[in-house]
Amino acid sequence: MNAELPAVDPESQEASHRTKPLLRITWACNERCPFCNVPMEDYAVRTPPMEQLREELKAILDSGAKTLTLSGGEPTLYRERVIELCQEATTNGVQFIEIQTNAVLVDTDYARAMAKAGVTSAFISLLANTPEQHDRLAGLEGAFEPCLRGIDAFLDAGIRVALNPVIAFETQQMLPDYVDFVAQRLPGVSSISCSAVQPHGRAAKNHALLPDYAVLGESVRKALKRAELHGIELVNPYCGVPLCIGWESASEQSVEAFEARRGGFDTMGLDNTGNKRQGTPCQKCGLRSRCGGAWHAYWELRDGSGISAPFTSTTPWESAHDPEFQTLVHAPQGPEETHWKRLADTRTPATWLWTTRLSREDRERIVDSPVTDVAFEYIHGETGEDRESLRSLRSLQRQMENWPDQQRIRFWWGIPLANSGAQESAAKAVGLAHALGASGVTLLTDSSESADRFVHALTLRFPGLECIALERERTGVNNSFDRED
Known about the structure:
Elements: H1 10-17, E1 22-24, H2 50-62, E2 67-71, H3 79-91, E3 96-101, H4 108-117, E4 121-124, H5 131-138, H6 144-156, E5 160-163, H7 175-185, E6 191-193, H8 213-230, E7 233-235, H9 255-263, E8 276-277, E9 294-295, H10 296-302, E10 326-331, H11 337-345, E11 350-355, H12 360-367, E12 373-377, H13 387-399, E13 410-417, H14 423-435, E14 440-445, H15 451-461, E15 466-471, E16 482-484
Parallel strand pairs: 1-2, 2-3, 3-4, 4-5, 5-6, 6-7, 10-11, 10-16, 11-12, 12-13, 13-14, 14-15
Antiparallel strand pairs: 8-9
Helix pairs in contact: 3-4, 4-6, 7-8, 12-13
């Protein structure tokens, strides 16, 4: 989207919301997490030669990157490589270096050496706030206390620490306690990235590890309140959960939503058909333009348990929701420059363009705008159909045929139904809407008598098309819409 964001200081950018170029030092690891999505057994060559790593780093440096992430496996298995690569990066202008680690092998001297070499932040997998659960999820007995000592060493060396509890089924209700534990035991930590077990890698063979989003959502909401009290930032990363799983009121702390607001539908995380998708509960969700949905396997294994729209994006002919989430720009005779300017400035997740006309130029501008929904009021006058508008609608639908649901603009038609005698012409119009890929139809009636039976018949005739009927006197724009005529 085109909305401008407030300036974010580099420290915050580094910490929470920026994707850094990634350099994997090794696939080998001293832990054996049962949920690991890049398990070392999947790689014939677990540790690339140093020369290959230097070439990969050179490519990153040649790109002009100022940030870098060193990861694995467990990168601290190769202590000197970490130092050498960090020194090379900082010498060539890299300003922020993050190391992703389980911290088990990190002591005071090594943390100080990393800081001197240029490491600025550590992303550490502290998986639970109890030794038993942490060690079980890490696949390494006795890992809890060394991990805590490693975190202490990073903090003492002046390296910023973000924690990564990969939430599993057995820890899904413990997130609020985890936040409290961090505040008490690790007061120097100010950021927690709330990853959740993905149905990939080792977890693909052990589905019982997947959290149940219906349970996790309430846990996230409680944890957010605890975090606010403690002054800790919680982040919902790409490998986290859909916004409706507790993050609906904290979307600015969700990486997908943050990046979508900054960069529009084409942002990474929304253009994600290889990993995630939205399902039936997401179709009318007002946050769908800021959320990538759930992993494909979650829909298949858990049937989307817990996923539901926090609020519904409603058509202009229905009652509206909070203007914080939904904007309506009304262009009765087709959008003009004032309407496009209003659209360009919108910051809400759901943005409606309501009109009776669409030109070819409008079609091209809609795709490049923040519009998430188009309300098209179909008018069949004495001169017949508005063929230019219909051609524009057809062209838009064809252009979006292969787009994922979260990137596709939805079209809702308003069709007049003056009386029961007009049902035949209304049915033809509904058929046209269906053929042109409309998501739904609102029949604007003078009387609700027989309308329900007519809607039911249309639903059977045009499967997959949502049809509702509203009396004209009950329609119109509710004042809670942010409207410009």
